[in-house]
């Protein structure tokens, strides 16, 4: 990830118009959104918006302050790439003449992707994983000719704490 990009996980009330207000805030302030993904969170009453933001145009602290001014924002967390897990989904239709088809299929297999559809001149594939893995896969597919490409944008959560917690000891009575 570029060092001018930061990942924000924004927990919001799941109400109509919330995403539009968040996106509008970024547009009004001239902040560039690199990636945006939104879906329901742990509770049906809340959604989680994962925003990868370009902070070259404005300091991250200013972005967070502006987001907290929105009434529907519950919590904002900046996710450090070393302390979080990130995933993204890529769908691509690739030109694949019969003589190249096995190469595209093998490349997809190497990256642990899936073949979704096969046509006479193209193949549609999917791959999920860390954004850098998808970048590498996309670059290799480009050599065959991309017909269509869609990426979801990043979703991310904090890594789980894996340090052993001391067990409670029982006192003899």
Walk me through what this model shows:
This protein has 173 residues and is an alpha+beta fold. It has two domains: 5-79, 2-Layer Sandwich (Alpha-Beta Plaits); 86-157, Alpha-Beta Plaits (2-Layer Sandwich). Helix content is 27%, strand content 40%. The protein has four helices and nine strands; from the N terminus they run E-H-E-E-H-E-E-H-E-E-H-E-E. It has helices at 18-29, 60-68, 98-110, 131-142, and strands spanning 5-13, 32-40, 46-54, 73-79, 84-95, 114-118, 122-129, 146-151, 155-158. The strands form two sheets. Strands 5, 6, 7, 8 and 9 form a five-stranded antiparallel β-sheet that branches. A four-stranded antiparallel β-sheet has the order 2-3-1-4, with helices on one face. A hairpin with a 5-residue loop joins strand 2 (32-40) and strand 3. The chain is globular and about 55 Å long. The termini are far apart. The mean pLDDT is 88.
What structural category do the secondary elements indicate? alpha+beta
Order of helices and strands: EHEEHEEHEEHEE
**What's the total count of β strands?**
9
Taken together, the total number of domains comes to: 2
Question: Can you tell me the CATH topology of the largest domain?
Answer: Alpha-Beta Plaits
């Amino acid at each position: 990830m570029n060092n001018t990009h930061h990942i924000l996980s924004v927990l919001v009330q799941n109400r109509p118009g919330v995403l539009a207000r968040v996106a509008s805030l970024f547009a009004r302030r001239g902040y560039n959104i690199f990636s945006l993904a939104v879906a329901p969170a742990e509770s049906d009453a809340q959604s989680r918006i994962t925003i990868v933001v370009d902070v070259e145009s404005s300091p991250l602290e200013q972005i967070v302050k502006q987001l907290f001014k929105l009434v529907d924002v519950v919590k904002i967390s900046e996710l450090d790439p070393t302390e979080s897990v990130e995933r993204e989904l890529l769908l691509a239709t690739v030109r694949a003449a019969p003589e190249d088809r096995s190469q595209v299929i093998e490349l997809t297999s190497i990256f642990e992707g899936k073949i979704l559809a096969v046509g006479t001149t193209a193949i549609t594939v999917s791959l999920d994983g860390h954004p850098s893995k998808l970048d590498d896969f996309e670059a290799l597919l480009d050599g065959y000719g991309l017909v269509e490409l869609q990426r979801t944008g990043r979703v991310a959560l904090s890594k789980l704490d894996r340090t052993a917690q001391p067990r409670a000891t029982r006192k003899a009575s």
